[in-house]
Queue: 4 jobs
Job 1
Amino acid sequence: MRTFLLRALQCVASLLLFGRFLGAQEAPVELSHVEAPTINIESVDLLSRQGVGNERKQIVFKEFRETKHGRIVPSSKFDVVCEVRGELNLSTEDFLLWTSVDFLVAPVTETYKNMGIEQIGSSVAWGQLTEMDDFKSAAIYSLSAGETRRVVVKNLDLTKTLAAFSVDPSDNLWPWLLRINVHIQDRAGKQIASAMKIVRLWPDSGRRSRANSPTSVLKIPMS
């Protein structure tokens, strides 16, 4: 019912859409003779919009929780906010920041409820869900040496993904962890920085627990 893919081909195809951003390039240069400009991703935070009308504000959050009515707290929609800093040896350059999201899926059991993030990560493989529209991007124009820039990738949405995880007696699976991957590449398409943010997603306590089969896990491709 659910397909887990490492969508390398999809990502490559999507990157081609940024041809206008990358522009026409001259013949490749021997990278061994050129010191590539570098930047650092100082932080990655997740923001959710709270309130109504003029009272709406953004809050930083560190985990998701499912309610008994199937809603997600603080929200199934969120923004990824990155602090990006140019190294001192950087000439003024343009860059592209883009995101992808991996999931760690396993049955809803007391075993996984009681595990920490590192424990779950060492027992189940990460994979990607086709329901998740995770390829988002933001351009970084004219970043200078020593400059820090706040870059926001808006409107990542878990709605379709979580709709695929209704309580099913045959597996009762749940995406316990999300890994938001942040990548930065230069105009030549070379990746020069990356970072990640791992976030826990707690299922509602009313979901059926399969305590009698705590070692049953879903086999998905390694990332």
Note: The longest strand covers residues 93-107.
Job 2
Amino acid sequence: MKVKLIVSISAFVLTVFISFHSNVFLTSIKRGIFAFVIFYIFSSIIVKLLEREMILFNEQKNTNNPSNDLNNANDIAIETDDNKSYDLQDDFQPMKVEKLNNDEIDNMDPKMIASILRNLEDDNDKKQENA
């Protein structure tokens, strides 16, 4: 309420002072009143929109709290065929990559080798950008 009045009174005073130089006093007051009303309406609309956005932001912040998501993800358990449950973190195993022999590389298509090398270069570029 205070902000709307301060903005509106400022618009009134500025309009009166600016228009007083080239207009009659009554015309300057009339234009100041118009400025007061228009700025009061605009500031009311802006305040209502900001209040609505703040309410939506607070609701979204409370429902999508990342710390809650992380806590819930660690508590997830998987049921196996033996009806034993275990945590997802205990089940992590690094990926095993098969190594190619020199004979396999010699027999590969050159286009295939080029595409593999390009993919590796792209991965290295991405890692360097993230570092």
Note: The chain is about 70% helix and 5% strand.
Job 3
Amino acid sequence: MANSADQGELWCVSTFQRVAWVLVLLGWLALTLAVTIGGNKTPGAGDSPTVLLWILTVVVALGAWRYGFVPYVEATDDELIVRNAFSTKSFSWSDIKTITPRSMGLVIITAEDRLIPGHAWAVQKSRAARWTNTRTRADAVTRTLMEHVRAAASQ
């Protein structure tokens, strides 16, 4: 969903993906609580597996937050800003050649024709949708972003 902001349009991770990450976290938390409450029955292991499970619970929680709630794509008047889980990149509209929706996110190919294109994880198109040629939110976002690219090219 695009949010109108003073500086541009903003697309975040879909609600489905956020719910999926929360469910993964809750499932992991339930497993950790069950092992903690039920006790560790591994002979000779002591409390090691329980402590490890709690450490991994923190890792899963951080992953759920970084992958489910941090990524976004923002279209401003001057540039495209892509915030992924661990990085932020900005692309000038005039530098962008094309944007394509893929299962790992929007693929942003610049005029420099780099070997490694930019990816926007926040907006993804499933492989099933690509195979069946189904229109998705990723197609709508791509269309909107490509309008910005075309407008910058015509100036």
Note: Residues 92-154 form one domain.
Job 4
Amino acid sequence: MAEHSTPEAIKKAIRTYMFVGSALIVGTGLTVWASYIHFGSNAWNITVALIIASVKSFLVAGYFMHLLSEKKAIYATLATTAFFFVALMGLTLWSMNDFPFFTQVFGGK
């Protein structure tokens, strides 16, 4: 706990937050600038906007929400979420009788 409250650590954290905040401001400006440019089709415009938004969301989640330093907890939560998502989608498809694998393995209508 003491290593996080030293003056050097505090200055480093402030410097990081200032850099990330500046990058978010630049990203917002880039988003506004890109909205006035036609990249050939709506699909390209949407792709550019999503790339910029993805970078900005990574910065917010990674640094401001401290997800980069909490890797074990994040991976455990992600694995649990993925497991339940697959299980619930599998049960849904099985109940709808639209997925042949489940009807062959577990029987069905």
Note: The mean pLDDT is 84.
